[in-house]
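## retry 2 of 3
previous attempt timed out at serialization; input unchanged, resubmitting
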Amino acid sequence: MTKIDRKKIGIKIIISIVLLFIALVIDRWIDIPDNPLTMTIMLLFWFAIFNLFAPKFIQKYKKILITFYSIILLVFYYYRFQTDQYENYLIIKDEWILPILIGSLPLLVLLWVYEQSKLIKTLRQEKSQAELSLLKTQINPHFFFNTLNNLYSLTIKNSTKAPEVILKLSDMMRYTIYEGEKENVSIEREINYLKNYIELHKIRHRNNNDIQFHIENTKNNLIAPLLFIILVENAFKHGMERLTSNAFIHIKLESNLKGVFFSIKNNFDEETKNQDSGIGLKNLKRRLALTYPDNHELHIKKSDKEFEVQLNIYMND
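## retry succeeded, writing output
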């Protein structure tokens, strides 16, 4: 809190105390039933209190509140001074003037609570969006550096594969930078991204490793970008790049009316660290919790030499 903010709060507190003091003094010295001056000052006192604890709320609804209570006060003044018989005034006051004045305070509090709940919800959404943006940028750059090194080697050898590598890497970087910022992308674009990634790995390894990617794409659903790449990266990083022979990665992706269903299975070196304890999977779990809080299932199964993940994302009806 800045010095200026503290000064403003101090001024508001002093104004509230002064208003309350004036109202009490007038009510004591001028012995008039339902003193209009006291009623007006007390109303200003409560406005000052609300403005102290909820200044943004008062500023937002200032015109509405001033109009509403001004009308109530004017009607009150009219009946208080124009009624010939004080008994008639008391009936009018008890039937609707006081109920409106007293009943409006709980309504004011409820409106403030509603505004606070909206603010909290907005802040949570903004926090979630900020976390998602950060998580999307945490895709492992190690692959890109390895591919660039591989591209350098192919270029030196004048390999015909060099242009293909450049094109695929360019498509991947473009997708990561531009499509990765979107809330949703088509499943077809996500599949093309995964295909490019897998093809570049095939060019890099140049052996007969068993890499399979089966697609059953019957419906082009929209999906949050860059979810599956984390699982595919893990499979290559902990499996194929560490095993000297008989490495395999089997991937299956199905998209239908119910949702998108992705599974990946790979073998790994027994001496490798736990594949399910890395930053990548923690990143994925957090993104899923933010993006599909009640519409996803993530199943991880690990045996002595094999690691399998099933990710189900269900589409809303």
